[in-house]
Amino acid sequence: MPRTGVQLFRFVVLTIGSLIFMVPLLWMISTALKPIDQTMSMPPKWTPKQWTATVDGETLEIGLGKVPEDATDQTPVPVTAAFQWGVEREGQRIPVRMRRDDAEADTVTVEMSHHWEWTREGKTNPVRRLDHDSENAASAEGQVLVAVIDEDGGLRRQTVPEAELVKIYGTTHDAVNRSYSDSVTLTLPREQVTRAYVRWNQRQEHAYVKTQTLELPYGDIHESVVPQWGNFAGSIKEMGQFGRYLRNTLVLCFLTVLGTVCSCSVVAYGFSRIEWPGRDKIFYVVLGTMMIPFPVIMVPLYGVFRDLGWIGTLKPLWVPTFFAGAFNVFLLRQFFRTIPKELSEAARIDGCSEFRIFLQVILPLCKPAITVVALFQFLGTWNDFLGPLIYLTDQKDYTLALGLQFFQSQQGGTQWHYLMAASTLVVAPIIILFFMAQRMFIEGISMSGLKG
Amino acid sequence: MTRNERRKLGMGLLFISPWLIGFALFGIYPICMAVYYSFCDYDVLRSAVWVGPMNYTDMMSDDVFWKAIYNTLFYALFSVPLGLMLALVIAVLLNRPIAGRSFFRTFFYIPSIVPLVAVAMVWMWLFNGDLGLMNYGLSLIGIEGPQWLADASWTKPTLILSSVWQVGGAMVLFLAGLQDVPKSLYESADLDGANPLGQFWHISVPMVSPVIYFNLIIGIIGSIQEFVKPFVMLPGGGENRSALLFAVYIYENAFLYGNMGYACAMAIVLFFIIMFLTWLATRAMGRHVYYAGE
């Protein structure tokens, strides 16, 4: 068989294989960048699309319905456009919901949403006015009783000067659906209520959006690839406490890396650079502990941490790393052993203490191995799920991994674009880290398995 | 013991003291307590009450326990050998110089470092029965794909497939092992006219047999304890508990049902299963593992 033939065969197999291996991650990113309706389209498309067409003389983003396979430029295809009814208030267009539209009448009935904001000392809080219902009527001239909503959702009652309250009209979907939003029903002359289109892919962000189906010639519809970068911000918002999750994860990564590096290097030094009776026998015990499955010690460990009052805190997740895990000790010991004895001997003759030899002679030489250990500990902490699942009780203490699972279990698997965007946010730092320290990853893995 | 020896012993123990303390607190003590609790009726709120071997006898008549054991062994039996074979084949293909080699290696390796929870999310989406990419791909070749995660007969294969995707670590180990094989072996095999397949069987496989053994043991330990993906992808073990793995059942007993004693007893059983399988693998492979230089 000619060598080039074998080479070509290998190249083709590797190309196909690596493409298949990349499909799940590419599909995750692709989904993360799509508007929600395109995540559910069949057949699936790899790129997030945006269609535009001219409707009522206005160039507009629209949704595209099912296109027949043999469609020509003249074929009429169904498209959907999104629009709002709205009225002018103080130079601003306020979306409204059409309540009653009697074609005969000169007036229409609409619903409009607003809330009140109260600003004091530069801090703005949403408030709910309590003077609408008679029981909570205004207490004094110019003073209004309100319920102030704190940042964490708490309520307190307070009387504030009416002049300090500002009325904010609800223009977004979130604004009109908030619990403290008020709505009023108005009857207005027909010509005051006007229709305006909104961009299709942004329709869920706006208030009171309605859709209508039209038929347009296929040739009039333009297709372009537009990633929905806003999905990342959207998923962060949907997850609720993403910032806290990220902070907790980073704090844990920092503490566990610190703990592992400090404790494992000291212990590995004791197992490799000092010769004491029984050392190697005890080292077998260290290796043996790697065989203990976590489920075995899971329940008693939980008991220990509960007795210490650590359940519901981050402590069970980082304190143990300050007591040297077997695997990392093993890795570092293998590396420490490769450093010539003469170096330590020379330092000893110069009167160095054992600890100074460790700090000033051995550690500087072992930076590569220590970096590998730190890297894998970071990875381990970032990816850990079972630990946080067992020990963390309060949502504000969750890590990213646990927060992602919590988000998924809460929203019940419909918003795949947000779920994939959130997953991408959890995965991306690891992939970036990998590309920054690629050689170390590969060396670290090889070190762990072979040079034993 | 001379003074110097005593000094060194003291120094050595001082240096390993973090491990000694950690081992006592987070190693020996929990293991002893796990054995003790396994003979107790114990939950979070009350202190443990000795009940003798009741937890172990309860296990015998617990259908879900047997189901979890069956599922876990089924999972391990397929995912470990499949993963090993795939990792070895990729490593052999990557072992000799080829254009874009480091790219290929990166592509095969990256899935193995992706956080498992995110992997679970992505697989739930890919294997979604109605909207998933997998079933769409199958429909292109005329196959109507199953409801992977909802159909009791397909949940375990889904888990196995997703585990096979993460063989990057094993692959890198094989690659490192293959790189230590003397080139001269392949060259003389070439001269003798051995074909690539023959070289694979008669040179590569025996020469990396220590790595195969290592990966096999790691694979067994890992797969018997598999937790995150089944827990996230198939809450409660999925349809008819068809993908309830042992570690998930232990977790459920310990932290959802409050049967911590029972959970400990099952964890001890899990430990012995791992020990037994490791012993089995060692016996089966022992004579075939070739260590260079022995």
TrEMBL record, chain A:
Looking at the UniProt record for this protein, which Gene Ontology cellular component terms does it annotate, in alphabetical order?
plasma membrane
Family membership, please give it: Belongs to the binding-protein-dependent transport system permease family.
Gene Ontology biological process terms in this record: transmembrane transport
Q: What is this protein called?
A: sn-glycerol-3-phosphate transport system permease protein UgpE
Residue ranges spanning the membrane: these are 12-33, 249-271, 283-305, 317-336, 357-379, 416-437
The answer, when asked if Cell membrane is one of the entry's keywords, is yes
Please report the record's description of how this protein sits within the membrane. Multi-pass membrane protein
UniProtKB/TrEMBL annotation, chain B:
* ABC transmembrane type-1 domain sequence ranges: 69-281
The record's subcellular location field reads: Cell membrane
Asked if Transmembrane helix is a keyword of the record, the answer is yes
The biological processes this protein is annotated with in GO are: transmembrane transport
What main location does UniProt list?
Answer: membrane
The portions of this protein that span the membrane are 12-37, 73-94, 106-126, 159-179, 200-224, 260-281
The protein's matches in Gene3D superfamilies, at most eight in alphabetical order, are given as:
MetI-like
For this record, an example GO cellular component is: plasma membrane
Which PROSITE patterns does its entry note? Answer: ABC_TM1 (PS50928)
Keywords assigned by UniProt, alphabetized:
Cell membrane, Membrane, Sugar transport, Transmembrane, Transmembrane helix, Transport
Is Transmembrane found in the keyword set? Answer: yes
Question: What Pfam families does the database record attribute to this sequence?
Answer: BPD_transp_1
Q: Which family does it belong to?
A: Belongs to the binding-protein-dependent transport system permease family.
- Name assigned to this protein: Multiple sugar transport system permease protein
Organism of origin is: Algisphaera agarilytica
